[in-house]
Amino acid sequence: MKRFLLSAAAIGLTAGMASADYSLTVLHTNDFHARFEPISKYDGPCAAEDNTAGECFGGTARLVNAIAEARGRSNNAILVDGGDQFQGTLFYTHYKGKMAAEFMNKLGYDAMTVGNHEFDDGPEVLSGFMAAVDFPVLMSNADVSAEPLLADSLAKSTVIERGGEKIGLIGLTPEDTDELAAPGDNITFSDPVAAVQEEVDKLTAQGVNKIIVLSHSSYGVDQQVAAGTTGVDIIVGGHSNTLLSNTDDKAEGPYPTMIGDTAIVQAYAYGKYLGELNVTFDDAGNITEAAGNPILIDASVSEDAATVARITELAAPLEEIRNQVVAQTDEPIGGDREVCRAQECTMGNLIADAMLARVADQGIQVAIQNGGGIRASIDAGEVTMGDVLTVLPFQNTLSTFQVSGKVLVEALENGVSQIEEGAGRFPQVAGISFAFDAAAEPFARISDVKIAGAPIEMDKVYGVVSNNYVRNGGDGYAMFKTAENAYDFGPDLSDVTAEFLAANAPYTPYTDGRITVK
Fold it and tell me: Is 438 exposed, middle or buried (CB count within 10 Å of its CB: 0-12, 13-18, 19+)?
């Protein structure tokens, strides 16, 4: 078993021994989700004028320069990805994996692991992506031997060389990918700990003593893998969109997080950060030093002009998608700010109904959409995808989770707590009805709460769907942050709403008294 040596005695090497040290910089991204253009502070689209004003983050054009600068700081550097390059913007909707392949090749990635969203369009799109990239795509905890599109191309691990040293790389994906995506019937997924250990043993037998796991499995699972295996030096994480940092007070843990001998890193999501881990190995492959921090990709990082031009070119056909007619409505669907942040509104009912319909077969009973996430109305007539995206521009994803009836009532109390201020927290709902008195004392505003027509039971556990912003505490919904069985990475809310409109066309907007104002 390797030992993580940080004592003064271990670091105080002789000159002769020091010559055997090997330094490596691991640059990493995860959960990019097709954010090729800059993003806002809310992780959604950032307007051109805001980008010019220095208010945007990320974007591939900034990553080009940030990665080049980071490589310039290191004698030996690798660039790897923790999965979920796919899904999240119209770029993916239109180009599938082709645009990701083009820009990952441009950035010079050395390897990536498969994320669950890489299977959103089945093995076919993943296979095409893998054929187009110049680097290995890895997944150890799955048997793809029965899937002809992947059997001969998707490896469990690989070995690369950098600075004359061999580095073993192992891929890892969520064990429940078959439930999260669409991998098909020919792939089976397995326990991550056993899968990683098997590949470590193979690599070690080949004389490889520096091993990195690229893990799209979540910060929690990464810690379990680190504790349950031997021989893993570094885990580059993903899936949970976790920010690890030594300088950001919002970070969920230190960068790196050490579990035994293993250094765990993750760099949030959406290209907002570039992870930079600097490690030193002794001749036996033991880490003697591990330090670094994620780099915030803000306006201080300049954009590469050629990349900006190419992305602009690729964005042009997206206007066709925005103009795509998805449904018809004979009446306007009202998303007025003054209404949707104070009472039941027709747009709120549409969105909440769409959310609940999408996941009702998963045991979900209640939908909650914050009124502040509703940004526009839709006029009578043809409804285009552009109309839906104007209403829901934030690229929020569906989040499912479980909470008690007591927590649901707390959430509703929060939702009606700032009506007089026009706050965005007002809850538009489906599957649940309630009354409220905004003038009542705090925690006495909500009454007559019913779910599926029956009075709410405070001790009962209910399945809830919301958007990822609300589930993670946005608009004051902090009570959802500790929800059980939370999954924040469902389909885009705008896609869910558009598909619901199409399935119910011509759509007739309505209110039904699910929210009563006293």
Answer: middle
